[in-house]
Automatic annotation (TrEMBL):
Gene source species: Micromonospora mirobrigensis
Entry GO MF terms: metal ion binding
Descriptive protein name: TIGR03086 family protein
InterPro entries reported in the protein's UniProt record: CHP03086 (IPR017520), DinB/YfiT-like (IPR034660), Maleyloyr_isom (IPR017517), MDMPI_metal-binding (IPR024344)
Boundaries of every Mycothiol-dependent maleylpyruvate isomerase metal-binding domain copy: 12-133
TM segment ranges: none
Pfam families linked: MDMPI_N
Length: 199
């Protein structure tokens, strides 16, 4: 059974809030490890995903409108922090692991168990936290036990031709999936080069 990763998810999300709070307007055009996305596009995506998962956790989220990415407003950090608090609060309900989440981004009518939905959100924010940190040239540190909990989630993400699609969530795996550093291993599993932007 997939473990209940809500505590780890909250820790990862709060780490991203601290990073995003350091973003300044001049930073928004910076490149990120997400191909084709500058930092503004990445933050808009991260904010929207919090809102979508929060909606699904509370029995909504069946419409793609709940997941739609919007242009950043005048205070992206505040908007992001608000969205993060929304998803943390939504995930805190005791029965969330047993609820069914609608995930229309995966396809019309797609529904998954709450534990699995939280695991998807968790791995996204471990990885996107690193993306933001690399874009800003800042360190990204998460507790070792959290990273070890994230490794099997990353390992469970299917690899294959689907990762080459234009809208794929992750690039194909990189060879260093046996790296002893858990964060580097996670990054390789989702197609990120730990040394980005260098080869």
């Amino acid at each position: 059974m997939i473990p209940d990763l809500r505590a780890q998810d909250e820790t990862a999300v709060r780490a991203t809030v601290a990073l995003v709070d350091r973003v300044r307007p001049d930073d928004l055009g910076r490149p990120t490890p997400c191909a084709g996305w500058d930092l503004a596009a990445l933050l808009a995506h991260m904010t929207a995903q919090h809102c979508g998962f929060a909606a699904s956790a509370t029995g909504r989220g069946t419409s793609l409108a709940e997941w739609r990415t919007h242009p950043l407003g005048d205070d992206p950090a505040a908007e992001y922090a608000d969205a993060a608090e929304q998803v943390i609060a939504a995930f805190a309900a005791p029965d969330v692991p047993e609820r069914t989440f609608a995930l229309p981004e995966f396809g019309a009518g797609v529904r998954v168990a709450g534990r699995q939905a939280v695991s998807f959100h968790f791995i996204d924010y471990v990885v996107h936290g690193w993306d933001v940190a690399r874009s800003l040239d800042l360190p990204f540190t998460l507790p070792a036990e959290l990273l070890h909990a994230a490794v099997p989630v990353a390992e469970a993400i299917p690899d294959g031709p689907g990762r080459l699609a234009p809208d794929a969530a992750f690039a194909p795996r990189l060879p260093a999936t046996d790296d002893p550093d858990p964060l580097n291993r996670i990054l390789a599993l989702v197609g990120r080069a730990p040394t980005w932007p260098h080869a």
